[in-house]
Design goal:
Blueprint (H helix, E strand, L loop, with lengths): L1 E2 L12 E4 L5 E6 L5 E8 L5 E3 L22 E4 L8 E4 L14 H4 L10 H29 L5 H34 L3 H9 L2 H34 L9 H23 L7 H4 L2 E3 L9 E2 L5 H8 L11 H9 L12 E3 L21 H41 L1
Antiparallel strand pairs: 1-2, 2-3, 3-4, 4-5, 6-7, 8-9, 8-10
Helix pairs in contact: 2-3, 3-5, 3-6, 5-6, 5-10
Length: about 400
């Protein structure tokens, strides 16, 4: 049967169409030689018509996606932020490269969790809850006996023990919270991982865990040296508690806390972003998928602006953001972007101790790692000497008693 041009939204007013048995329309048109030529034409659901060779070609030629429906040669990404449809070959799914704007081509085979493994998650819950509970009790008892302490040495030790408890409390709170985050995201973490890694919540947990561990380590170092020093003094009496001694103890505690929190917060300060920001995430930019490091910006910036006078990796993050912003019109305002900060290197948001030669924060990380190693060494040597001196004193006492 013949159908009119209205079947194709009046695209072909003077053409005649013949309906085929398999549902397509054959367009009949005259040629220069007087013969009739038949073109296969696909009728879209919105009544537009396209050449049949454009069906299943990974492009929405119809405008409603009907020419790409039920095709077995591609993967259809979910509609992105402007409701446009995107299609990619099946070979691009799970190949390690983000092709879909919403990254789902790499997420469908993703089994990443915040905490990998039920054993680690159970351990985080258990240690976190026990640590928080135990250190609240220890701190409470320490506060209750402070007023009864008359020796400055004992006051110093007691305050350091309370500071250690505070650091362990922070670490325990971090463990319980990160376990709760894993439970909250559950299996949906693959889709939410980019938002989580650039979030302020992840950075806050990184600060808490880093500050807590540093507070405990620095306090234990000072406590071990203090005990060794008192042991070497022998039977010399300790100074009584007075305002001056209290100020010394409080000052020491504040210095430890300040140093620990400074180490944790410095990587997040805006003035140091070129040292600690690892990448930028543009959730709404089609060709900037996933996290983009400075080296990743070389191609799009070069393609748009031409070869720059300076290496892209030598530019500041602020300059890169401005160059990227200028690639787009200002109709929609500033492009939404998120910085991948120091603590976003891993879903558990820990301090980045293990760095590669190309990481801009490698000297900071290695410096803190070296500082912590020195603290562990001091603690080990101090307690070894404490044990040696204690054993020698015990031997002398026993020999004196025997004599």
């Amino acid at each position: 049967p013949l159908v009119s041009g209205a079947s194709c939204s009046n695209q072909h007013q003077r053409k005649i169409f013949s309906q085929r048995d398999y549902g397509n329309i054959a367009l009949v048109r005259p040629s220069n030689g007087g013969r009739f030529i038949t073109d296969k034409t696909f009728v879209c659901q919105n009544h537009n018509c396209i050449p049949y060779h454009k069906v299943c070609d990974l492009v929405d030629d119809c405008g409603d996606g009907s020419d790409e429906e039920n095709c077995i040669n591609h993967f259809g990404c979910s509609p992105n932020y402007n409701n446009s449809q995107q299609y990619i070959p099946h070979s691009s799914v799970g190949d390690g490269t983000y092709d879909c704007v919403n990254l789902e081509d790499e997420l469908i085979s993703c089994n990443t969790r915040v905490i990998r493994g039920i054993l680690l998650k159970s351990f985080a819950w258990l240690i976190g809850i026990l640590s928080v509970t135990f250190n609240i009790v220890v701190t409470g008892k320490g506060v209750s006996i402070l007023s009864s302490i008359t020796s400055s040495d004992r006051l110093f030790d007691q305050v350091l023990i309370m500071v250690i408890s505070f650091g362990d409390f922070l670490v325990g709170g971090y463990l319980a919270t990160i376990a709760a985050v894993d439970t909250f995201f559950s299996k949906d973490f693959c889709r939410k991982q980019f938002e989580w890694l650039v979030s302020s919540e992840c950075s806050t947990l990184g600060v808490i865990s880093t500050a807590g561990s540093q507070v405990s380590l620095f306090s234990m170092t000072l406590l071990s040296v203090s005990r060794l020093w008192k042991l070497t003094k022998g039977l010399c009496p300790s100074k009584p508690v007075n305002k001056k001694e209290i100020m010394k103890v409080v000052s020491a505690a504040l210095i430890l806390l300040s140093l620990s929190f400074s180490i944790a917060i410095i990587p997040l300060l805006p003035r140091f972003e070129d040292k600690f920001v690892n990448a930028i995430y543009y959730p709404d930019v089609k060709f900037l998928k996933g996290f983009y490091s400075k080296s990743d910006f070389k191609h799009p910036i070069t393609e748009y602006y031409g070869k720059p006078r300076y290496e892209v990796t030598d530019l500041s993050w602020m300059s890169i953001r401005k160059l990227t912003q200028n690639m787009f019109t200002n109709r929609n305002g500033e492009l939404e972007h998120h910085l991948l900060h120091f603590y976003g290197n891993d879903p558990v948001c820990l301090f980045k101790y293990f760095v590669s030669p190309n990481d801009p924060q490698r000297w900071f990380s290695l410096g803190i790692l070296g500082l912590n190693f020195i603290c562990f060494t001091i603690i080990t040597i101090s307690y070894l000497l404490v044990n040696i001196i204690s054993l020698q004193s015990s031997s002398q006492v026993c020999e004196g008693a025997a004599a």
